[in-house]
Backbone:
């Protein structure tokens, strides 16, 4: 039977995914600059759309609250079985979730600063862009750790592991290419975007698995 805390973790994952999607839907239709955007475009956007950026930023504390619930729920579900096998993939995954949250605090803080001082875009925008891109490292850790642990403990299915690995590869590649993403954007920026979209799908599927299945069966893969 699904435990109450497993449900908390599952709804945390879905809440996190929903919130980050909504936060992006607030600013992207208004023309939020993409990686490698010209400074004039960046300055104009943050000067003219401060209210939208503020609303989008206001959602992120909710996302961070949800992601910690997800991390705790996943760990509580997976760790008892992993400990018996002397494995710690769930720890790797939880570390990735918490580290990506810490880095994203810097991303949001930089965006808020850009609203207050858009004329400082020459310094603040490359910083925001670099933090956002290099954060793919920690998304990759979360995806890899929880995908391996989830499959080995019988919580998720092979296709979810494959989805997680694919997203991890794309986000990690984007992080490795951070200097090119910041300087040129374009196709280099699309690598991280593709990984992020798969990350969101993975979050919804993992959260659903936690809600529906509760404590996983003891299954070796």
Residues:
């Amino acid at each position: 039977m699904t435990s109450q805390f497993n449900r908390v973790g599952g709804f945390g994952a879905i809440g996190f995914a929903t919130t980050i999607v909504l936060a992006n839907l607030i600013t992207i239709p208004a023309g939020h600059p993409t990686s490698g955007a010209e400074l004039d475009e960046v300055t104009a956007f943050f000067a003219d759309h401060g209210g939208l950026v503020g609303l989008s930023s206001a959602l992120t504390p909710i996302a961070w609250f949800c992601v910690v619930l997800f991390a705790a729920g996943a760990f509580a579900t997976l760790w008892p079985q992993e400990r018996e096998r002397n494995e710690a993939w769930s720890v790797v995954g939880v570390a990735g979730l918490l580290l990506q949250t810490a880095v994203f605090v810097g991303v949001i803080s930089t965006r808020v600063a850009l609203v207050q001082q858009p004329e400082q875009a020459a310094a603040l925008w490359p910083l925001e862009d670099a933090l956002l891109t290099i954060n793919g490292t920690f998304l990759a850790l979360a995806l890899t750790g929880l995908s391996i642990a989830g499959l080995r403990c019988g919580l998720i299915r092979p296709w979810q592991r494959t989805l997680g690995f694919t997203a991890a590869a794309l986000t990690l590649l984007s992080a490795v290419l951070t200097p090119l993403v910041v300087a040129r954007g374009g196709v280099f920026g699309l690598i991280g975007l593709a990984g992020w979209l798969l990350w969101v799908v993975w979050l919804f599927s993992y959260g659903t698995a936690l809600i529906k299945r509760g404590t996983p069966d003891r299954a070796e893969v």
Notes: Residues 50-84 form the longest helix (35 residues). Residues 4-213 form one domain. The radius of gyration is 18 Å.
